[in-house]
TrEMBL record:
One Pfam family recorded for the sequence: LytTR
Gene3D superfamilies, A to Z: 3.40.50.2300, LytTr DNA-binding domain (2.40.50.1020)
Any one GO molecular function term: phosphorelay response regulator activity
Domain of life: Bacteria
SUPFAM superfamilies: CheY-like
Species name: Paludibacterium purpuratum
Domain Response regulatory: 6-117
Name of protein: LytTR family two component transcriptional regulator
InterPro entries: CheY-like_superfamily, LytR-like, LytTR_DNA-bd_dom, Sig_transdc_resp-reg_receiver
Record keywords: Phosphoprotein
PANTHER family: STAGE 0 SPORULATION PROTEIN A HOMOLOG, TRANSCRIPTIONAL REGULATOR-RELATED
Stored SMART domains: LytTR, REC
Modified residues (4-aspartylphosphate): 57
């Protein structure tokens, strides 16, 4: 008896979701567990529904398909769908990532599904390369809070603070905890926009208002919103180099 596969459709166009739903009817071993009409809903449902296969549209408002993968860490069982876009197709071909070009036939759909089945459970390094090429620096940060998923725009972040095994992201007057190291998120942020001013603090330069004296030889960064962050000697030198 064959194993039933759980599938999720992610596309902001209802007609596109309907077509995939129709094509899946031929495959009795696939259980359609959900449909998403936005990238944000997909981020939530990928986490809760744990699908084996994801039919993922690339061009969606707010969160693209590649941003969904970047935020969720998903790297297998993904079948991309996309309308014609010369730049996007060139990137897919360059990194040898398969995709379905809309409109696609049942035969083309079945062939892509067969390839995805063969790759199930195996991470696809090409996806990492494609995601990195499409967005070398983070533009959004995903925060899971029980049943909620917060998507924080990097541009809205004031500063990020290391707290043991967590980081505390301060943005728009709120504080969000995320299980990640400060060094890890620093490597994903544009160094022209974020600076490590202290071993425990990263600041958003766009939110920096003043650099103040703190004590005899120390300094502190005053950020928009009134936050005050300590600056180490090394951090001060970094700031002087960049500003």
């Amino acid at each position: 008896m064959s194993h039933t596969l759980r599938a999720l459709i992610v596309d902001d166009e209802s007609l596109a979701r309907h077509l995939i739903r129709e094509y899946l009817q031929r495959h009795t071993d696939i259980d359609l567990v959900g449909e998403c009409d936005s990238g944000l809903q997909a981020v939530r449902d990928i986490d809760t529904l744990e699908p084996d296969l994801i039919f993922l549209d690339i061009q969606m408002p707010k969160l693209t398909g590649l941003e969904v993968l970047a935020l969720t860490g998903r790297r297998s069982g993904v079948i991309f769908t996309t309308a014609y876009d010369a730049y996007a197709l060139q990137a897919f071909d360059l990194h040898a990532v398969d995709y379905l070009l809309k409109p696609f036939s049942q035969e083309r759909f079945d062939a892509a599904l067969a390839r995805a089945r063969a790759m199930l459970g195996r991470s696809q390094p090409a996806l990492d390369a494609l995601i990195a090429a499409s967005a070398p620096w983070l533009e959004r940060v995903l925060i899971r809070d029980r049943e909620q998923v917060h998507v924080i725009l990097v541009s809205s972040i004031d500063y990020i603070e290391a707290q043991d095994d967590y980081i505390a992201i301060h943005a728009e007057g709120k504080c969000y905890l995320k299980t990640q190291s400060l060094a890890d998120i620093e490597a994903r942020l544009d160094p022209k926009g974020f600076v490590r001013v202290h071993r425990s603090y990263l600041i958003n330069l766009a939110r920096l208002q003043t650099i103040e004296r703190h004590g005899k030889d120390g300094h502190a960064a005053r950020l928009a919103g009134g936050h005050k962050v300590p600056i180490s000697r090394t951090g001060y030198e970094r700031l002087r180099t960049i500003i």
